[in-house]
Design brief:
Radius of gyration of chain B: 23 Å
Number of helices of chain B: 13
Strand content of chain A: under 5%
Keywords (chain B): Cell membrane, Membrane, Sugar transport, Transmembrane, Transmembrane helix, Transport
InterPro entries (chain B): MetI-like (IPR000515), MetI-like_sf (IPR035906)
Largest sheet of chain B: none
Protein name (chain B): Multiple sugar transport system permease protein
CATH superfamily of chain A: MetI-like
Membrane topology (chain B): Multi-pass membrane protein
Shape of chain B: globular
Shape of chain A: globular
Number of strands of chain A: 0
Number of strands of chain B: 0
Largest sheet of chain A: none
Number of domains of chain B: 1
CATH architecture of chain A: Orthogonal Bundle
CATH architecture of chain B: Orthogonal Bundle
CATH class of chain A: Mainly Alpha
Distance between the termini of chain B: 38 Å
Number of domains of chain A: 1
Oligomer: heterodimer
Radius of gyration of chain A: 21 Å
Pfam families (chain B): BPD_transp_1
C-alpha cells in the first residue's frame, strides 16, 4: 500500500499542485510554491487552533481571557493587519531591530522573493487562527461531557483522550474548519497582498485572487480574469469535496 | 491528578506568550502613533514621551481620513439597515409561511452562499457600470447587500424556524395583516438574531477592501479601508502619521468587539453548527 500512496502523491498529486500553481504565477514569474505551500500549511493551520481550543476547553489557567484575545485579530480588516505588519516587518523596522539585538542579520521580510510569501501567509495565519478557534469551541460546547468523564474515570492520558474522544467527537467541526480555512487561504488574502506586497517582489506573492484582480484592474483583461476565477471556483469545489470525502472515510475507520 | 495540573501550567505559558503576540502589534501601532518622527527613528520600542494627538489630528484632516471615515459610515449604515430589513422579511417568509416555490427559493439562497466573490466580481463590475452605479453610494450599498444577503437570509430563516408557529397563527386570528405580523411580532422577536447578524454584517462591510476598490474608483469616494491602503504610498516616510491613520480605522472595530464579542462569535459559529 505504501508504494502506491507514495507514487500517487509524488507523481500525480504534486504535479497537479504545481500545475495549478504555474497557472497562477504568470509567464516570466518565479515558480514560487505559492499554492502548494498553502496546501502543505493547511493541516498546521487547522491543528494549532484545534489544540488551543482543546486547552481552553480543558480549563487551562486563564482560559476565560484567551478566547477573547485570540479571536480579536480575526475581526480586524486584512488592510489594517497588513498595514500594521508593514510597520513591524519593514527592513529598518522593529522586528529586524530585535533580531539584530540577538545577533541575527536583518531579513528583508517583504522584499526577498524567497521570504515574502512565508511572511504574508504567516501574517494571514496570525490574523485568522482565532476564527477557527471559536468554531472549535462551538464544537466542544456540543460535545457530550460524559464521554470525557468516562475517559477520566478509565485513567486515559491527555493524548489518549484527544485521540480517542475529542477528535472523533469533533469530526464534523474539523471537516468544517478544514474547508473554510482552505477557502480562506485561496480567497481572502487579497487585502493582505494588496497592502503588504502588491504581488511582488518578482511576482512571488501572486495568489489566485490577486492575480484575478490584477488581470482585470491593471491590464484590463476581463476574459482572462474570468477564466482564472472560474478555474479557482472549480478548484475550490473539487478540493473541498475531496477533503470532506477523505475525512468522512477516516472518521468511519477509526 | 497533580500531573495533570502540572501539564495545564506547562501549556498555559506558551498560550500566554501567544496572547501577547496577538495584542502586541496593535499596542505597538498605538504607541508609534503617539510618537514624534524623531522619537520613532531613535528608538522603535520605547514608550512615547507624551500622549501626542497631533498625529491623529493630522491624519484626520490633512490626509483626508475624515472624508473616508464618513464615506464608510454612510455606506455601512445603509447596507446593514437594508440587509436586516430584507433578511428578516425573507427569513420570516421562508421559515413560517408556506407558499409555492418557497423551498426552491431557500435552496437558491443557499447556493448563492457558496459562490465566492471572485467568480462574480468581473461580471458584477460590468453590470454595475452598465447601470451607471459605479462610483456612487447606492452602487456600493447595493453591491454589499447583494454580497451578504444570502448569509443574512440563511441565519434569519434558521432563527425564525425556532419561533413557535402558534404565535403567528394567533396573531393572524387576532386580525393582523401579514405585514402587521411581521412588523409587530416577528421583527421584535428577532432582536437577538438581528443584533448578531447586524454586527457581523457591519464588520464585513467596514473591513471590505476588494468590493469597494471595484465600485468606488475615484479618490474622494474612497472608503476608510481603501484610504488606509493609499496611506502607505503617501506617508511612507512619516511613520507616526501612517500609524495614526491605521489606528483611526481600527478603533471602531475595537470598540464594537469589546462590547459585542459574544454576538460576533455566535454569528461566526452559527454557520458551522447548523450547516
Amino acid at each position: 500500500m505504501a508504494p502506491t500512496v507514495l507514487i500517487i502523491v509524488a507523481l500525480r498529486l504534486w504535479p497537479l499542485v504545481l500545475g495549478v500553481n504555474f497557472s497562477f504565477t504568470g509567464d516570466g514569474a518565479r515558480n514560487g510554491a505559492a499554492v502548494g505551500l498553502l496546501v502543505l500549511l493547511l493541516p498546521v493551520a487547522v491543528a494549532i487552533p484545534g489544540l488551543l481550543a482543546t486547552s481552553i476547553y480543558l480549563r487551562v489557567p486563564g482560559h476565560r481571557v484567551y478566547r477573547g484575545v485570540y479571536f480579536f485579530p480575526a475581526v480586524l480588516s486584512p488592510v489594517i493587519v497588513g498595514a500594521i505588519f508593514n510597520l513591524l516587518l519593514a527592513y529598518d523596522g522593529p522586528l529586524n531591530t530585535l533580531l539584530g539585538g540577538v545577533g541575527l542579520g536583518p531579513v528583508d521580510w517583504l522584499g526577498d522573493p524567497d521570504v515574502a510569501i512565508f511572511a504574508v501567509v504567516g501574517v494571514h495565519v496570525w490574523a485568522t487562527f482565532g476564527m477557527a478557534l471559536v468554531v472549535f469551541l462551538a464544537g466542544f460546547a456540543a460535545l457530550d461531557p460524559s464521554l470525557l468523564d468516562a475517559a477520566k474515570v478509565d485513567g486515559a492520558s491527555l493524548p489518549q483522550t484527544i485521540w480517542h474522544v475529542i477528535i472523533p467527537g469533533l469530526s464534523r467541526t474539523i471537516q468544517f474548519v478544514f474547508v473554510t480555512t482552505m477557502i480562506g487561504m485561496l480567497t481572502s488574502m487579497f487585502g493582505l497582498l494588496f497592502v503588504m506586497t502588491s504581488g511582488g517582489p518578482e511576482a512571488s506573492t501572486y495568489l489566485p485572487e490577486y492575480y484575478i484582480w490584477v488581470q482585470q484592474g491593471q491590464f484590463n483583461q476581463p476574459a482572462l480574469a474570468s477564466a482564472a476565477s472560474t478555474a479557482l471556483f472549480l478548484i475550490m469545489l473539487v478540493v473541498g469535496l475531496a477533503q470532506i470525502g477523505v475525512l468522512r472515510r477516516a472518521g468511519r475507520e477509526s | 491528578m497533580a500531573g495533570r495540573r502540572l501539564t495545564k501550567w506547562f501549556v498555559a505559558v506558551p498560550m500566554a506568550a501567544l496572547a501577547l503576540a496577538t495584542v502586541y502589534p496593535l499596542l505597538f501601532t498605538a504607541n508609534v502613533a503617539m510618537k514624534t518622527r524623531r522619537e520613532y527613528v531613535l528608538d522603535r520600542f520605547s514608550l512615547s514621551g507624551a500622549l501626542r494627538w497631533e498625529n491623529i489630528a493630522s491624519a484626520w484632516t490633512s490626509v483626508g481620513m475624515s472624508r473616508y471615515f464618513l464615506n464608510s459610515a454612510i455606506v455601512v449604515t445603509c447596507s446593514v439597515a437594508l440587509l436586516l430589513l430584507f433578511g428578516s422579511m425573507a427569513g420570516f417568509a421562508l421559515a413560517r409561511l408556506r407558499f409555492r416555490g418557497s423551498s426552491v427559493l431557500f435552496l437558491g439562497c443557499l447556493a448563492a452562499l457558496f459562490i465566492p466573490f471572485q467568480v462574480i466580481m468581473i461580471p458584477l463590475t460590468r453590470v454595475m457600470a452598465d447601470a451607471g452605479l459605479v462610483d456612487t453610494y447606492p452602487g456600493l450599498v447595493l453591491a454589499y447587500v447583494a454580497q451578504f444577503l444570502p448569509f443574512t437570509v440563511f441565519l434569519m430563516t434558521s432563527y425564525y424556524s425556532t419561533v413557535p408557529a402558534e404565535i403567528v397563527d394567533a396573531a393572524r386570528i387576532d386580525g393582523n395583516t401579514l405585514y402587521g405580523v411581521y412588523w409587530r411580532i416577528m421583527l421584535p422577536l428577532g432582536r437577538p438574531a438581528l443584533l448578531s447578524v447586524g454586527v457581523l454584517n457591519a464588520l464585513f462591510c467596514w473591513n471590505d477592501v476588494l468590493i469597494s476598490l471595484l465600485m468606488m474608483p475615484s479618490a474622494e469616494n474612497r472608503t476608510l479601508m481603501v484610504g488606509v491602503t493609499s496611506l502607505r504610498g503617501q506617508y511612507s516616510d512619516d511613520i507616526p502619521v501612517f500609524a495614526s491613520g491605521v489606528l483611526i480605522a481600527a478603533v471602531p472595530v475595537l470598540v464594537v468587539y469589546l462590547f459585542l464579542q459574544r454576538q460576533i462569535a455566535d454569528g461566526v459559529t452559527a454557520g458551522a453548527t447548523k450547516g
